[in-house]
Specification:
The structure is a homodimer. In chain A, about 55% of the residues lie in helices and about 10% in strands. Chain A is an alpha+beta fold and about 675 residues long. The interface between A and B is large, with 141 and 141 residues.
Amino acid sequence: MVHLNKSIREGDNADLTSERLTATFNTHEMAAHLHQGRHHAQRRREITEAIEKIPELHDSQPYPFMTREEKINEGARKLEAVTRHMEKIIDPNNAAELFHLNNEVLGLEGNACALHGVMFIPAILGQADDEQQERWLHRAVNREIIGTYAQTELGHGTMLRRLETTATFDKQTDEFVLNTPSITALKWWPGNLGKSSNYAVVVATMIIDGKSKGPHTFMVQLRDEKTHNPLKGITIGDIGPKMAYNITDNGFLGFDNFRIPRRNMLMRHAKLDRDGTYTKPSHAKINYSAMVHVRSYMISHQALFLASCLTIAVRYSAVRHQGHIDPKAPEVKVLEYQTQQHRLFPHIARAYAFNFAGAETVRLYQKVLTDIEEGDTSLMADLHALTSGLKSVVTYLGGEGMEQARMSCGGHGYSQASYFSEIYGVAIGGCTYEGENMVMMLQLARYLVKSVAAVKQGQGSKLPPLVAYLGQKSESTSLIDRVPNGGFTEYIKTFQHIARRQTFSAAEKFVKLIENGTPREVAWNKSSVELNRASRLHTRLYIAEAFVRKVNEVADPTIKDALSDLLHLHLNYELLDVATYALQDNFLSTSQLDYVRDQLYLYLEKVRPNAVSFVDSWEISDRELRSVLGRRDGHVYKNLFEWAKQSPLNRTDVLPYVDKYLKPMMKQQQSKI
Amino acid sequence: MVHLNKSIREGDNADLTSERLTATFNTHEMAAHLHQGRHHAQRRREITEAIEKIPELHDSQPYPFMTREEKINEGARKLEAVTRHMEKIIDPNNAAELFHLNNEVLGLEGNACALHGVMFIPAILGQADDEQQERWLHRAVNREIIGTYAQTELGHGTMLRRLETTATFDKQTDEFVLNTPSITALKWWPGNLGKSSNYAVVVATMIIDGKSKGPHTFMVQLRDEKTHNPLKGITIGDIGPKMAYNITDNGFLGFDNFRIPRRNMLMRHAKLDRDGTYTKPSHAKINYSAMVHVRSYMISHQALFLASCLTIAVRYSAVRHQGHIDPKAPEVKVLEYQTQQHRLFPHIARAYAFNFAGAETVRLYQKVLTDIEEGDTSLMADLHALTSGLKSVVTYLGGEGMEQARMSCGGHGYSQASYFSEIYGVAIGGCTYEGENMVMMLQLARYLVKSVAAVKQGQGSKLPPLVAYLGQKSESTSLIDRVPNGGFTEYIKTFQHIARRQTFSAAEKFVKLIENGTPREVAWNKSSVELNRASRLHTRLYIAEAFVRKVNEVADPTIKDALSDLLHLHLNYELLDVATYALQDNFLSTSQLDYVRDQLYLYLEKVRPNAVSFVDSWEISDRELRSVLGRRDGHVYKNLFEWAKQSPLNRTDVLPYVDKYLKPMMKQQQSKI
């Protein structure tokens, strides 16, 4: 028999199968919408199957049972193996295929080459001149050398200008002398810097004739290529365990009069001649592009993290029975509880929304790249503002959803068998890396404040599409309850109203402070929480719009209907969440708020029959999920027991601490009596 | 020189000292308000000093560098040592002193006797009859035997009635036969069950003559007292690693026709005679008292977790410099940023509020205990409702604050050197254990709905104090901006209004569904999210009231002024957080909301000079805090480097995985070219 939900197999947990049988859409089709079209969705499944057949690509035991050293060893083992098998399984030039392969085989806790592909090679491509690329690029691409990108220092993160590491030009020997003048100047945090990399692109303040020329990048060999021992003058090591992501060896690095040739300065943009003549880079923005690149892709990766947690929680909620709604009937699936639905379904909607917004962002990023090649940098500021906002909002709201998903599984969610805490730990790091969220929100706010100024100067009609709504007028009240079905537009107008109102009021607060004599940056600081709120509302509006655009674009009516339910749920949930802003000046009335609540509960019920199918559609394999609780087949309890029996503590019945410490304690107490 | 802030020492980080010099109150005095009066605050300091002098009570290395097995061993080592030294350091009968000693020495990741004192002994006290206490109590108190309390099963948590483990009475042999009829019936989760305990109080469904008598408690020996080997018929082990709290061996337990004497059934309340005659317990509520006991104390423990995270974040924010407010001046402390203040200060206020509410709860619990001894159980329902709500709201909001604190420290907050992730991991477990939060909120909601019914029946004036406000009438609008300074009362009235409005509307939704023919439990389920919101607002009102009561009670004007600032901050922050409810029907006007925002920013500034002193007042020692980032002396960077150098990965320059896997990978690639 052919089922719409493609995850059904014989022998599965019957409760889970019964959920899948109520699907109103084909999950393969939905997967195509989530994963860049039918072709790639199909490739993902093929890759999963190919991996299944190669045992050395499988985890040799669950990660939670390994020490950090064992995990790192296991990660390197699989990294070597997957490198050998790669060309059989995927097209290595297809980033999306490589991403999926890595997720399945290496997992999300990192690996010895995590930064090599994402930061080191792009740094060479973006910043080394042609001759330099000749020297390093093919060696890096072929992994003859392994590298990373060393920017942040123990005492300095985002403020590039304040980096303390120095590269002083020695004209006599035609070399740079690298130094770490203080403890706070130690390079700190770069991934794979500690133990894996033998090269790094290092950011240091360049000094020529005693004068600082600001931060520049340098190719630095860190370790002997044969012995892997650190070179003389280099202090290097791992910064120690983190909240998560512990297969990656984030490292520290110090220099003590370490010399590199002048031509190890990356000279695509800035240059230094043999005679000490310095040429500035022509375009300062160029350096941002690596960050924007990573941020653009972060949105959909974060959506995948959230979807992973929801896959676990929604499936488990269909398997877990607890309590009664009808006192005479058997215990119900916990998925029947409105509180459980309210905890999970709006986050399913968010995961979808983030995915759609992420796909748009990547498309915009690719357009900006093409534009730049044609000399047009006009969209860069928009893309930067958009990704700054999305990165912050998505990582934060995603974290909220992941923790709700974990807690919705009760005690078992707290066990590492669920793998929740690791997924959360890795994902939530995104609030901090690639631009700390508060800093990002305020970068977006600067863009919004400029847009408000443009509107006030009568230039509102010339604003770029992302902020065009700031130049438009509001209705005096919301009309969300006038167009009952499919009234997406009125919701969007309401979100536009509140984002606009908050943006204007925050900008006005800032301007008024300046007019009253407050220094500009002090005024900015005193307005920053309100500006932050504006950035958040602006970004949440964008996410809702991206979801609406997606639904409007879908042709297949079963997919469109299902996504429309999810979108309705999203719009009502999000509006309720920011209703404080909407209720001001009675733009939204009290009775409209009641309407929003009723709609919310209505759409929880509508989403209910498709809940499992919505998460199944992400097609995150058991291998990738690494969660006993989230297994496709729903056989949770038996496998929790099997998992627990493997725990290292269960290798012996009586652990050494019992004889060594507990028994003496017990006897000591007895002797007192 | 004598300073008001008692944490100042010579040689400290100057930025931190400068913060401490602006304190407007004596931190020892504030500590007395946080820690049950001057005497106990002084005892805490003395205990800290005593521990300092006994090296075997100190951690032998930082926990994050240990494997789980090493941690468990280290925990047992210190447990044995602290048991030996205990009577020199504290009065072992003083629970508060014991609590502090354990926090400092054993820490928050648990220990082999964690459940022994909190659950096993109270279970004997509460449920064993006098003769049974004679047999087991002194052996337990003296730790000749180590026990735990085994209730939850793999497939069942909160639903006691559905527990599957059976204890079948065999009249012939005068024994109970214990069985685990399925995998889901395995006892699962009890702390210290896996490897440490040799006894347990086990909850099982009692069967007499083929008939179930419901859940009862039994004393069961699990392991041989000499060899510690599991007894025949017992399957036992550790359930595997968890999100946190991994020194404790949460365990599983299965029975295969395991026999215990009839008199191992705990018979204080229910009884079974030799001839099979069964006597029911007289008062079903009695069994709740252990849960209520734990929940009553949880509130202040959770406050301490939150305060720990804030201590780390606020101190670090005074040490960390980043960016500029005045472009010409040096980089500023990150504590100067309004966004940073907004991230941290309202949570300082919450930690104080939770502490004050927790102290009230413990007093009420003690009163209820006295009442019960005098045969008066009238307050038990109120206490149960109160602790259910507080437990849920405090664990959830606390978690929010802890994660904000971590993120406010940027990358370094993500390092386990900060210890944030462990504190969060342990604390957030509180959302799940001792009654899952959603279940707890709905238990409170039942109490609130009953109170509404009483009001509707004209009994509003007879409601107990905790819900008396439900019987009162609202003003038509809020008056918060009419009494500018010290207008705590108008804020409380506003919180009362919104809690009352939501409670009535949720209750009415429930009643209306029933009137329209919906079965009662279905109606309850369909109203449960709204009921939940009511419970939350009710509890947050209580917390605000407890804070107001505390401030009104303080005599010392410097303490009173400082706490008043914190309370103002709290009231405005909380009101803004729930403003959606207040804006309905224009109870709060848009201009009043603007007023609340302005007040919020004003009180962030007022709290600023005391921020470090507010966290210092908790007097959480460096030993207890276990955080490099939160050190009292503020010497963060040097010690982060020292910490990292100790990381196990840095014991050798080149780790085995490099030669074993990375080099073959690098060569394999080279050979392809």
